[in-house]
Amino acid sequence: MRKQSNTLIKLGLIITAIILFANKFLGNKPTLVQKSLIVGDSHAVGIGSRIKNAITDPLIAKGGWRVSDLIRALNNYPKKADVTKVIISIGTNGQFNKNDNINSLVVTLKNKFPNAKLYVYGGSYGWSLPKDKTTLENLFNAYYKRFKDLGVTMLNNRLGYFTTDAGAHSVSSPSAKALINEINNLVN
To answer: Which residues pair with 120 in a beta bridge?
Structure first.
């Protein structure tokens, strides 16, 4: 019995040595488990509820939030190196304000999720701001260009123009369905 025990211990040590050798000298590195987060405002919550392989953490996604709210929540959020993708939904509640500190938001996201690629999608407009559609579209486009200029990838789909709050927050609208499909493909 003792001989069998010694043989098993030796076999275990040999296998461990082979694994350590393979990892060290053959360049095998542990990989991150893909983990995606959706952060931001009520659109993050609504769209996030339809995404299969992403988490919408209520500590960093809430209705009514503006950029400053998201930054404040992120400052109290733990650093997570296992997150590989962060999808941002922000801007609607601040009416795509040119004074939003998008630079600080992006820096904070990169600090909290150092291994993540950042994505952003356009929110909704038209239902709460009394401006003409062309002016709103110009504000919207200029706002999200700021993210792109900071290296954040803009998703192809966006929520866009709606005349009512209910329409803007519906996950059944054609634009919401297209966005949900794009994000589901991204995080799979």
So the answer is: 88, 154
Mean pLDDT of the chain: 88
The DSSP code sequence of 8-38 is HHHHHHHHHHHHHHHHHHS---PPPPP-EEE
Q: Which CATH class is domain 34-187?
A: alpha beta
CA 54 to chain CA centroid, nearest Å: 8
Average pLDDT over residues 176-184: 98
Question: Length of the chain in residues, anyone?
Answer: 188
Does this model's pTM top 0.90? no
DSSP per-residue letters across 20-86: HHHHHHS---PPPPP-EEEEESHHHHHHHTT-TT-B--TTSB-TT--HHHHHHHHHTSPP-TT--EE
* Domain chopping of the chain, boundaries: 1-30, 34-187
